[in-house]
Amino acid sequence: MKLPFFSKKQAAVSDLFLNETIPEHVAIIMDGNGRWAKKRGMPRIAGHKEGISTVVKIVKTAVKWKVKVLTLYTFSTENWKRPKTEVEFILRLPKEFLSIYLPDLIASNVRIELIGDIEKLPAHTREAVEDAIERTRDNDGLLLNFALNYGSRQEILHAMKEIFLDINNDEFSLQELDEQKFSDYLYTAGMKEPDLLIRTGGEKRISNFLLWQLAYTEFWFTDVLWPDFSEKEFLYALEDFCKRKRRYGGL
Ligand code: FPP
Questions:
Q1: CA 227 to CA 229: how far, in whole Å?
Q2: Which residues pair with 29 in a beta bridge?
Q3: Which class for 59: exposed (0-12), middle (13-18), buried (19 or more C-beta within 10 A)?
Q4: Backbone torsion region of residue 17, taken as left when φ is above 0, otherwise alpha when ψ lies between -120 and 50, otherwise beta
Q5: pLDDT at 4
Q6: Residue 245: which pLDDT band, with cuts at 50, 70 and 90?
Q7: Atom of ligand 1 nearest to the CA of 97
């Protein structure tokens, strides 16, 4: 029963993409790693490790379909509350991922960026990502944006403090502060706001992710756990996005 449905759906995806708009910026909350591992009688960290394979698949698909920005919620400011061993494991993954895949990413013209409070990350995490940012800075294909030690409230407060200092130093006046200027102080400065937010793992919440930037973003929730999220699932989300009418508060 399932196979014909899938192939029909896939054909529909390719037809549709010929005519419709692919989201330029896709942001993903990669949830469900722990449950994926527990279901298999494995420790939670095995789910995070498996999650890397999904990242590889989704990045490849994003490159293939010419998505411009892919933002991945990799470690939040709240994730520090997890057991130390899990935190340390997750924060080792960026280096592990980049040590294997950076050459492929460079060959695919991918540029790496990071949003979040980089100062509080362990040196090995920070250095691996900074090295990747440096080595991919001239690439103009997919922007692969890791949200690491990222929390939207922290980002907004950080922006407010910087704005306050700059106004105090007469860089600009309070009257000149508008939405665009405020956006320029966020970690995402210069990036288009997400067109599509995907959350895997069944929960339907934002979890302190891109609160300002998601004002007019389309949401896609799926019960599929991140390690099981496939190219096909990703294409369903893109296809669904293509069918939506965005009105931005207008008619
Ligand atoms: C949330 O699932 C996932 C995380 C906090 C970590 C995300 C990290 C990865 C997917 C690894 C990829 C990293 C790189 C750098 C490529 P959860 O642990 O909350 O799952 P649960 O809801 O089932 O407990």
A1: 6
A2: 73, 199
A3: buried
A4: alpha
A5: 33
A6: confident
A7: 16
Shortest-distance atom of ligand 1 to CA 56: 16
Q: What integer pLDDT is reported at residue 72 of this predicted model? A: 98
Q: Which amino acid is at 243?
A: K
132: confidence class by pLDDT, cuts 50, 70, 90: very high
Please state, in angstroms and rounded to a whole number, the distance separating the CA atoms of residues 142 and 62.
7
Average pLDDT, the chain: 93
CB-based contact 111:143 (threshold 8 Å): yes
35 known ligand binder = yes
**What is the residue whose two structure tokens read 């279901």?**
39
Which neighbouring-strand residues pair with 147?
73, 115
Its pTM stands at 0.92
Give the pLDDT mean for 111-116.
98
- Confirm whether residue 31 is marked as ligand binding: yes
- pLDDT of amino acid 13: 55
Superfamily of domain 15-243: Decaprenyl diphosphate synthase-like (3.40.1180.10)
Q: Tell me whether residue 36 is annotated as binding.
A: yes
Treating both helix axes as pointing N-terminal to C-terminal, what angle do 231-243 and 44-64 enclose, rounded to 10 degrees? Answer: 50
- Whether the per-residue pLDDT at 12 is higher than 90: the answer is no
Question: Cβ(69)–Cβ(240) under 8 Å?
Answer: no
- Is residue 133 scored above 90 in pLDDT? yes
Active site residues: 31, 79
Q: Are 23 and 66 in contact (CB under 8 A)?
A: no
Pocket of ligand 1 (CB under 6 A): 30-35, 48, 51-52, 55, 74, 79, 90, 93-94, 97, 201, 226
| Pocket residue to mutate for ligand 1, from 48, 76, 126, 131, most atoms within 8 A of Cβ | 48
